[in-house]
Write a structure and sequence with these properties.
This protein is mostly helical. The radius of gyration is 38 Å and the shape is elongated.
Amino acid sequence: MKDYNRNQNPNDVHQWTPKETVEAIQNVSKNIREYSFRMRETMKTLRESGAIQEMADAIKGATFAVRDTVNDINETTKDLKQKNVFAETAGAIEHTLTTVEDSVATVKELTTGAVKASPHTSKVIHDGLDLVKKETPHVTGKVMKGFKTKVGVS
């Protein structure tokens, strides 16, 4: 087949002589027989070696492992839901957000007194608190939304 491909350009098929065409067909036929024989021998060797059965057993084992893992995950998720873990976690996050907001308000009140004592320091603290106050609900909201979506809590 190598000789056929190297010596003949497929675009030149219309220029072949009848003898060249016959030789090309004979070469292709010979290659088909040769490759068929090699394929039969390869399959025979694979079958006799047990490689095909071994591969089938490996795929079967992997399939069972995936099935068992999915079942374990499903059971664990149901247990967590039944024990109200997701709702309690969501409640704890909500409580934490409220506590943080209260803390920010308290610190802000404290800085009001510090404004009189040190204007520059109090401005830095005030700017920091504004940033925390602005970002905390945004970040917590994203966390709660993602958590509620995964858990399926409305």
